[in-house]
Amino acid sequence: KTKEFNEWAECFVEVCLPSDILSLGIDIYDTPGFLSDNREQILTDNLHKLVKRIKPTLLFLYDNATISDTDKRCFLAMKNALGSMERVSVFFLNTKADCISIANDYLLDDDP
User: What's the pTM value of the predicted model, to 2 decimals?
Assistant: First the structure.
């Protein structure tokens, strides 16, 4: 809400990590604050600028086998923040694999 916050929020921070995946030319942008009830307009404006400039594919991360109410609220907030912008591709990625289900799917036996 302050001029200082708006100036800070408009800055991009570049973090460089040695990574085989990133060496493929993939850029990752993390956007903050989708669950806040009073999300600052500048954050939504930044998202719009980023999407218009980069034309990204969004990756929505969630950490359970099913999408929780919190995940759902976060996704809906992101969708609302994007508003009527051009269609943006969104992929969903579960960040915690269920190893037992994977083993069962491939008929793997955990007994020696």
Answer: 0.56
